[in-house]
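Supplementary Methods S3. Input chains for the assembly prediction are listed below.
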Amino acid sequence: MTETSTDFNGFRFLPPSLGAWIKSHIEKRRFEGSIPWTPLPRALNELTFTMVTSAGINHKSDPPFDMEREKQEPLYGDRSYRKISRDTRSADIDVNHLHINTNYIKEDINVILPLERMAELETEGIIGRLAPTAYSYYGFQLESDEFLTTAILPMAEQMKKENVEVVLLTPA
Amino acid sequence: MGQAARVLEEKGFTTIVLTPTPEFHHMVGIPRSVGIGYPYGRLLGDAGDSEGQRNVLMAMLEALEKADTPGSVEYLSFVWPEEPKDAKWHPPEISPIVKVRLEEIRQARKEQK
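Predicted structure tokens for the full assembly:
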């Protein structure tokens, strides 16, 4: 692993107790093993991009993510996903997430899923192409990896159909 | 999000995760991470700040080009203009998991001191 040297504190925005709790979990479970790696195949302006966020965004024409079950079962997080077409704008979306303030995303989707910014980079020729579909799932997946099967793998299938090569991911 | 990146990378996609808590890579083994000191839910910048969002996105793409080792982490130097206590990223109600684990969370802080 390579890291740029830093005094970066990723717990800075968290209340101290919550930060200490999360940090203790990270320290308990140190990753060992190999890390998958697909090299960047060509220059950015020759590649097809998409984006995935775990912010719980849905197009208003699609069902919202389920927050009620999590309220009853605090370890459960909705394991589904939503397609977000590249022309989706802030007025088209709803956002459901019990761990963040969702108002900023509702006001401007680009704060977490920068569809308009990526379309601009496409127009300018900085990236090759933004795929027709971006994706959202629900980031609170505490004690189950089931979302990898119910959300991430179906996304990957759609990405292959749209010839995606690079995926930018933004957790909420 | 790190697990999602791993699965996508295994499927042949090149991935990069923009995250406020890059420390998770120690737990998950994330192919490429970019740390940013911005509040949860606004990792690209503030609502309406298209220039700031673009700057972060460009920095993310630069990090993508630069990363040459599995598990690489790049830290961006952007500084959020508000103190964390003023950033208002919290949900309107305490999340369900925090409610049920409150004692454990308080204890973690005591043990850290």
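Residues 44-170 of chain A form one domain. The first strand of chain A starts at residue 48 and ends at 53.
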